[in-house]
Write a structure and sequence with these properties.
By secondary structure, this protein is mostly helical. It has one domain. Helix 1 runs antiparallel to helix 3, helix 1 packs antiparallel against helix 5 and helix 4 runs antiparallel to helix 5.
């Protein structure tokens, strides 16, 4: 597995942890992010969808799907912007910004790894 694939694989593992947390113990996962306890089904559905995304990330990493790696840089950077906007507009608690920061850091790591593996022209 090359460096860009490893960054996407690690992010996929992060998504597995978040997805399982939301699916199995949503209040324990969301509490530190400033969300009140919930009895709704939505956090569990988001956990299930997060696990689906994790499967895509891990499969793409294992097969070396470089276009996917490139796409994730933009999308994960967008998560940072969206989380920041939600917090700035007071639609979400401030600790949610941590999710955006993690996504941005992971996107930068992947972008850096992609840049380092590109052949010189």
């Amino acid at each position: 597995m090359n460096a860009p694939a490893k960054t996407v694989f690690v992010f996929g593992l992060y998504l597995v942890v978040m997805g399982l947390g939301l699916l199995i113990a949503p209040n324990a996962t969301l509490g530190p992010l400033g969300f009140p306890p919930s009895t709704e089904v939505w956090p569990r559905i988001v956990g299930l969808l997060t696990l689906c995304l994790a499967a895509y990330y891990i499969a793409a990493a294992r097969t070396g799907l470089v276009p996917f790696f490139r796409w994730t840089v933009a999308v994960r950077s967008g998560v940072f912007v969206a989380c920041g906007a939600l917090v700035a507009l007071k639609l979400a608690p401030a600790p949610l910004a941590l999710i955006g920061v993690i996504d941005l850091a992971a996107a930068c790591w992947t972008a850096w790894a992609l840049h380092r593996t590109q052949p010189a022209s």
